[in-house]
Amino acid sequence: MNEHVSPPGQDEQRRETIAYVVRHAHIPSHEHDVALTEEGVRAAEEAGREFAGRVVADEVVFLHGPARRARETAEAMYRGLVRALAETGGTAHIFPPAPQAKLCNVRMWVDGYLQEAMRLLHDAVRAAYQETPSPEHAARLAYHDAFWSAPDAIAYWLAHPSPYAEPPEAVASRLAEVIRAQLSIRPAPPAERRHVVCISHSGPMRAFLRAVLGEDPGEPDFCEHFAVWRDPDRTVWLAFRGQLHEISGPVRALVKADSGTPRHL
């Protein structure tokens, strides 16, 4: 969380709100809605501690998707940040982690509902085919078989749009909606800046980054992030892996924030 890239001629202090999209911390598998490993908890807490140097007197908001691993990552980062600021005397206003449904993982159509991708769903699709063989069940099972057997399941999903899975463009759009909404909120005085930490998953991150960069950057590491902000001239920027990118085209329309909404909550 300490990576930072500044656009030429721009002062970081002029940014009112910065959104960070973070992949959840380490998990043992994708079998079901699993908890973080001990390694994952430690890494998330450390990421929170590293973030403390950037938010000494600012406002910090933690949002997370509905999955357990996303919530636990947000909670661990929050703990690490709070402890680090207590040690250094920081006065940042930190909001406890809150759920945000649009930060959920890639979802699959199963039993008439969109459900977050996990191997447990693969088993349900196979059972449905075995119980009631049909062309529809066979096609759904074939997609799940290919997705879960692929060396990189998210790369397969990005390259093979299917009626049995949420479209990559829709996933990128809902993540962009979260970013846009947050960039539209100004920090509450006396804070001059607002940092919004959004804990999500590799699928939404890669779908959004592909829309911005024009190509899939590959699997992000656990706790890896990218940052998005808007400058006073309304230019929207993305910082990722040490590189700065101006967001343009259709994606810019999705994340271009309004002029700013004061916080009176």
Q: Can you walk me through this structure?
A:
The protein has 265 residues and is of the alpha/beta class. It folds into two domains: 12-105 and 167-255, Phosphoglycerate mutase-like (Rossmann fold); 108-159, no CATH class. It has eight helices and ten strands. Strands 1, 2, 3, 4, 7, 8, 9 and 10 form an eight-stranded mixed beta sheet that branches. It is globular. The protein starts with 16 loop residues before the first strand and ends in a 10-residue tail after the last helix.
Keywords summarizing the entry:
265 residues, alpha/beta, Rossmann fold, 2 domains, eight-stranded mixed beta sheet, two-stranded antiparallel ribbon, 40% helix, globular
Number of domains as seen in the coordinates: 2
Distance between the termini: 28 Å
Tally of individual helices:
8
> According to CATH, what is the topology of the largest domain?
Rossmann fold
CATH superfamily of the largest domain: Phosphoglycerate mutase-like
Using the alpha-carbon principal axes, give the shape. Answer: globular
The residue fraction in helices comes out at 25-40%
Strand tally? 10
SSE run: EHEHEEEEHHHHEHEEEH
Low-confidence stretches: 4-13, 259-265
Just give the CATH class of the largest domain.
Alpha Beta
- Rg calculated over all Cα atoms: 19 Å
